[in-house]
Amino acid sequence: MINTQFLFISGTEITFIMFIVVLVFGADKIPGIAKGLGKGMRSLKDATNDIKGEIQKSADKNGIDTSVSKDVTEEINKVKDGIKDLTGSVKRNF
Question: Which of 18, 23, 59, 72 could form a disulfide with 64 if both were Cys (CB 3.0 to 4.6 A apart)?
Answer without folding.
Answer: 59
